[in-house]
Request: fold
Amino acid sequence: MGSSNGMLKGSLQTIMLKLLQENGRMYGYEITQKVKEITKGDIKLTEGAIYPSLHKMEAEGLLITHTEMVENRVRKYYLLTEEGKVEVRNKLKEAESFIGNLQLLLNMKPAVS
Amino acid sequence: MGSSNGMLKGSLQTIMLKLLQENGRMYGYEITQKVKEITKGDIKLTEGAIYPSLHKMEAEGLLITHTEMVENRVRKYYLLTEEGKVEVRNKLKEAESFIGNLQLLLNMKPAVS
DNA sequence: CTACATACATAAGAAAATTATATATACTCA
DNA sequence: TGAGTATATATAATTTTCTTATGTATGTAG
Reply:
């Protein structure tokens, strides 16, 4: 079934911010599809997780939005603000450090000599 | 200051189970010190996080305990049950997969050709 | 007319953490 | 003697963040 998330807890924001950094602008549904594609179906983001998270980041000033009608459907695009661009870099550093530490703790990486 | 946790969310159990797998038996405070040591102070587990988590894993049958008095202080040692040993392996596979996916999403790993 | 894909939103509840507090012993430092 | 730190465990209150479920709406495939 692939979709054994459970460890996703603290990294949703980081993932979405990084995708926005790379793609310039994205809408919610597009993000879920992109993540599914990149992880080959392993990680499936749910609407109940992404939309509140996007709203929160918008409220915090990390994202701005603009809405478009495409094929008679509403699309709400999200883009990074300047503050958001700074935040991505911080989050990525944090993630890098965290992954390194996790690999050390779980013995997935040789100890540094 | 190093101690920017925040991404620890879903991995506390995995970390503690892995340490127990490696060390045979450990007590709560010892786990916090070991994690601090291995991560050079980056990750500081709090009591409010570890004790409820250990209690839960004991209730689930993953751990058993025995208490000892050392230097006039109580120590509650935790050990893996057979079920717990199986669980560590599952959690480690999950963690490996998750870390791989996260590195892909965050562009911390070259795309597989 | 049913199901699925696209697209957003939100409410209810659960899970897992943070923060704060409490207990208790022992050592150090002023 | 009193304060602070280290060792050691526990729990309550709160917050954050997620899952699950539901609702709206359009378009296509069968």
Observations:
- Chain B has a mean pLDDT of 91.
- Chain B has four helices and three strands.
- Chain B touches chain A at residues 4-11, 14-15, 18-19, 22, 35, 38-39, 42-43, 92, 94-99, 101-108 (CB under 8 Å).
- The longest strand of chain B covers residues 63-70.
